[in-house]
């Protein structure tokens, strides 16, 4: 189970329940919120427990308590090989910052990328800070925890272009991109480890345009993901 707080997040979860998505197991809300949403609660057969903002504050992970909090069943997700081969997929090695992962999921959702792979030592996608940072995108983007190296060693994956993001690589703005690649990103501070060097087909980089030559050493991970996703979609636009 995991916890979701706030009207926007909860209404997005309820909208996804009709498609067999994340299932709400328990809902706690103020009487006013329940009254305003009683129709959809009845339609989805969600039993609401009325409580107060003071009570919600005691169990909330947020500074300002929200009028509704739900407990949600974690859905079972298995990444099928066919899904991996036929869709763009983002992969992350040891992403540690909850806000980063949440923002990455939200960014992937914006660009229509529905599958993300994380190494086992990455932050838990159901960490409350990750969940809140997704702004509801967690209901539309599937996140899988896998051994990335073992995945790359699968002979079937030779059919798929694997990009690795590096500080030194081919300028992403000057190269064509396949529309259904696997794009790997490294840890926030260390980047991709050398264990993938022989398994990555193309090394890509976002060039700096700093005029002084003394600019920032690198982009924030979530910012890099946004740039790469944007270029991926732009490259596929006629």
Short recap of the structure:
With 238 residues, the protein is α/β, with parallel strands linked by helices. Helices cover 32% and strands 22% of the residues.
What does this structure look like?
This protein is of the alpha/beta class and 238 residues long. The chain folds into two domains: 2-73, 60s Ribosomal Protein L30, Chain: A; 81-235, SPOUT methyltransferase, trefoil knot domain (Alpha/beta knot, 3-Layer(aba) Sandwich). Helices cover 32% and strands 22% of the residues. A six-stranded parallel sheet has the order 7-6-5-9-8-10, with no helix packed on it. Strands 1-4-2-3 form a four-stranded mixed sheet. Strand 5 (89-92), helix 6 (98-110) and strand 6 (115-118) form a beta-alpha-beta unit. Helix 6 (98-110) runs parallel beside helix 9 (221-235). The longest helix has 15 residues, at 221-235. The protein starts with a strand and ends with a helix. The model has no long low-confidence stretch (mean pLDDT 92).
